[in-house]
Amino acid sequence: MKDKLLPAVSFQGVARRYGAVTAVNDVSLDIATGEFFALLGSSGSGKTTLLMLLAGFDRPTEGRVLMSGTSVAEVPPHRRQIGVVSQNYALFPHLTAAENVAYPLKMRGVGRPDREERVKAALSLVNLTERGTSYPSQLSGGQQQRVALARSLVFGPSLLLMDEALGALDRRLRDQMQLELKRIQGELGLTVIYVTHDQSEAMGMADPIGVMAHSQLLQVADPENIYASPSDHFVARFLGECSILRVKSIDGGRGYEITGPRQALPSAAWGGSISSCVQKMSPFIQRQPQLPKTSLKFRRTFATSPISAPAGA
Asked: Which of 15, 151, 208, 311 could covalently link to 62 via disulfide, CB atoms 3.0 to 4.6 Å apart?
């Protein structure tokens, strides 16, 4: 019972520097058990570095990484019970799909009868029961991705990390695998941390989204709120079409007037100049029975959200 009340993952003031280069800067973040959490940002924002710190493939320069309230600083990667799926599926070409899935169990000393049973269940989970004897070269990109996913789940991890895992698939396969991932996560009750630079992918799959830029975590919120109420100019522009207007509050804050061209402002002060994000479309979330959480759709409305100017602008 105690573990359920603690975050599945907690980053506390985490930083990672490589000489003069700061890859992650003072990130504090809690991820609840059973969440599908998306880390969204452009290349070089620090998303993958944060994932590697959690997986144990790198160590933070500062701060702590905890799982269920316990520091994992001295826990080696293979003892963290974390499944990892990357854009490069890293399948062994000389092993069949079933043998690839069985590999983590073999390394853990699981006996053959139990191993075969668990491999069969994992392949069934990703709808590849009939392709267990096929080699990677005989599988499509989507099927190879499913094998990699089955391999990451077969040993029963408490946490699944996915780093641009669908990036190599075409649009149709990506959409299909998004549904599959949500189904599997719901069936297993997994905590998933999903790294992506694709806004629609994050908006359509995640419970909360964390937006990263320039090594910092800028905002964490559910898809609807992060779109409707961005924390700054970068988040507003990154998540959708948006015009930044310079406006001024008037009549004691009861109204606003446009005071200048579209631009970023040096500050946001009550009674003075603030920024407003005028969006073409505002999203709404429609829950669908086949998905454990949410699917994102859009309706044409106009929304104006006050946002702050970026620090130092």
From this structure: 15
Q: Is residue 252 part of a domain?
A: yes
First CA to last CA distance, the chain: 46
Distances (CA, A) of 297 to 45, 153, 173, 283, 292: 27, 30, 19, 6, 16
- Alpha carbon distance 82, 185 (integer Å): 14
61-107 pLDDT, tens digit per residue, is: 999 999 999 999 999 998 999 999 988 888 999 999 999 999 999 99
Report the distance separating Cα 53 and Cα 61, nearest Å: 10
Residues 6+ apart with CB under 8 A from 40: 47, 196, 197, 198, 199, 202, 209, 210, 211, 212, 238
| 179 in any annotated domain | no
Strands across the sheet with 70-71, in order?
21-31, 9-18, 62-67, 70-71
Q: Is residue 28 domain-resident?
A: no
pLDDT of residue 312: 43
For residue 38, which amino acid is it? A
Spell out, as residue ranges, where the chain has pLDDT lower than 50.
Answer: 1-2, 262-274, 280-313
What is the tally of structural domains in the chain?
Answer: 1
Share of the chain above pLDDT 70, in %: 77
